[in-house]
Amino acid sequence: MEDVFIDVISEVRGILAHESAALTGLADHIGDNYLQAVRLIHNSSGMLIVVGMGKSGLVGRKIAATMSSLGTPSVFMHASEALHGDLGMIKPSDVLLMISNSGGTRELIEIIPYAKRIGAKIIAITHNTGSELAKNADIVLPLIYESEACPFNLAPTTSTTMTLAIGDAIAIVLTRLKDFRPKDFATLHPGGSLGRRLLIKVSDLMHTGDEMPAAPADMPLIEALPMMSRKKLGTVVVTGEDGKLLGILTDGDLRRILCSMGAGAIGAKIGDVMIVNPKRISADKLCEEAINIMETNKITTLPVVTPDGAVLGIIHLHDLLRAKIY
Asked: Is 78 part of any known ligand binding site?
């Protein structure tokens, strides 16, 4: 059994090395055709329509989804469905990205006359540069590899990996041409945690007013625990008479202090034991930054302050969890 396990590991390594080498080889053959393809898509006033069948179709769906999520309007069109009415979605201003390893997939070939008749441009991704698809395309992006990773050289493996990588590369280059930024990504992903982390600000979630556990430095330490319980944030923010942040006291700090001071805690003030100069954040910062500060410093609360240190509120890790940001 041990020998079999070693063989499996060796096989997996070999397959990954095979596909990696194919991608490295492809990178050595990138030329002006890629520049032309990127320019064509970037300058188009229409949609990028990705067309494919079978495994190429599955990869095409991913490419179209990646393009759209990164700011290049794109849809996937199944080649078979195209021949039964979906051709109507193609407009003269559109660019077709047609994927066929053999370059001879009948359904794709039958789409070409209509696309050419209305003036839509065609970019082909194919292994066979002498194929019908390649001959009729405006731009060809060849799949350059010696064999599939499949031991029978039958199942689409290296070819689909390469196609997906080409799609990713073009999508990412287009983001740079469009000056696409994280805030743009967030705008297109409002339903996901990534989008929320890049859209929602601390001011949207922070506790203010009566919800905020704020106390003066001269408050008796013994009164801190009831305040923590009432406000349910496990923290007291210590402020000066001018409303500026002086320090912070968490329930964990309080427990340790009470254990160490014993009866001596009865006469102590919050200001005597508070954490001075705690981590803080501005209200206009993204929740993404609040998460980073909490993770880096292993804390669960952050006072929210103005540039001059006046306390505006407090944000807790639980607020980020409830908002499905963390």
From this structure: yes
